[in-house]
């Protein structure tokens, strides 16, 4: 922290012993230790509060960014779905118009619903029953 080595501490201790004397040195050392501990706790508390506040601000900023991104994605999704909705709407209109124009319209039979060749289904039935 202050970059003080052991020999420098010895010199400071000897000077303090000479200036203060052997009677007052333990009391002063104890008081200095208490003050140093209080200062250290004070700085740690301030550091932890700053970290909490910065963390809270980061979380709030991240939350707003995610909400903005979510809103942007929702808008992009709506814009992307418009052509699909238009195609679906266009596909449904001709079916309704064809049914209204001809009263006797028969819907075409899908290719998977073969009514003529029942024998074509026999291999399939055998493979399913195995």
How would you describe what is shown here?
The protein is an all-alpha fold. The two termini are 81 Å apart. It has three helices and no strands. It has one domain (7-99).
Question: What is the helical fraction, as a range of percent?
Answer: over 70%
Sheet having the most strands: none
DSSP strand (E) fraction?
Answer: under 5%
Instruction: State the low-pLDDT regions, or none.
Output: none
Oligomerization state: single chain
Shape: rod-shaped
Keywords:
about 130 residues; mainly alpha; 3 helices; rod-shaped
Write the layout of secondary structure elements.
Layout: H1 6-20, H2 25-101, H3 122-129
Short description:
By secondary structure, the chain is mainly alpha-helical. The chain contains three helices and no strands.
């Amino acid at each position: 922290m202050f970059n003080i080595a052991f020999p420098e501490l010895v010199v400071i201790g000897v000077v303090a012993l000479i200036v203060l004397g052997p009677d007052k040195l333990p009391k002063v050392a104890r008081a200095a230790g208490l003050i140093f501990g209080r200062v250290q706790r004070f700085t740690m508390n301030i550091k932890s509060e700053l970290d909490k506040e910065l963390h809270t601000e980061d979380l709030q900023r991240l939350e707003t960014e995610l909400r903005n991104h979510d809103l942007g994605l929702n808008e992009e999704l709506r814009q992307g779905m418009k052509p699909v909705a238009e195609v679906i709407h266009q596909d449904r209109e001709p079916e309704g118009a064809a049914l209204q124009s001809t009263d006797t319209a028969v819907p075409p039979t899908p290719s998977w619903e073969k009514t003529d060749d029942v024998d074509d289904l026999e291999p399939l039935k055998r493979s399913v029953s195995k």
